[in-house]
């Protein structure tokens, strides 16, 4: 199931990863990441700052995109760089679809590299977390 | 009539750009790796099972993408994570949103590693958005492991308003 160099082509979509955070998962993430800002687990607090509900941590969506890449690589490579911007809010109990498309396949300094556009999508199909990545493919 | 807003960015802040923070320590251990991996929903055993991680060629459990260790908690530091953000803007900004995260890796990070992080503000920017006057701070943090090797550089963006 691992990504294979000769099967990767520019424009190719990588397998999607669907997430849907329970409030419990957000609490787990708060503890794991050390981000205890109350907008992620205290509804009253979130509303007092003008939000409609508690929101999913941006860094958790970044980590989801990391999983998207990791699962696609399947042990046949490593993430060299991955980043994203938090453009839109995502809420618990709503699907967060993580997707990626290969934008460039090349060799540099003896490494097999692939650039990707990566993002999360909300149920309305908006890219709430657009980003990009570079991965190293072993073989 | 539009009223001219006072700029948020002060001279003191401009002078702070590029200034390296005091180093701080982050630990990467098996429990924290498992906890992070579980919170994300990872299923690959290299994040949970040391034998599986070693069979895949790693020293120990692998830090999942995005995990750069846990800062050593100091109750005397007032509960702040990591480093001090530096001089404050011309008026207090009470709300903060995470604007973005970018991590570049240079080597593996595994359980047992002790990372030293040094941060600096790369830029301050002021923007007017739907939430009003915003201060956008871009911070770079360089993570060095116990062998003195730079293993990762994180660029983070915070939006304060």
Automatic annotation (TrEMBL), chain B:
Record-linked Gene3D superfamilies: Hotdog Thioesterase (3.10.129.10)
Pfam entry (one): FAS1_DH_region
Residue span(s) of domain FAS1-like dehydratase: 15-153
Protein name according to UniProt: MaoC family dehydratase
InterPro entries: FAS1-like_DH_region, HotDog_dom_sf
Tree of life domain: Bacteria
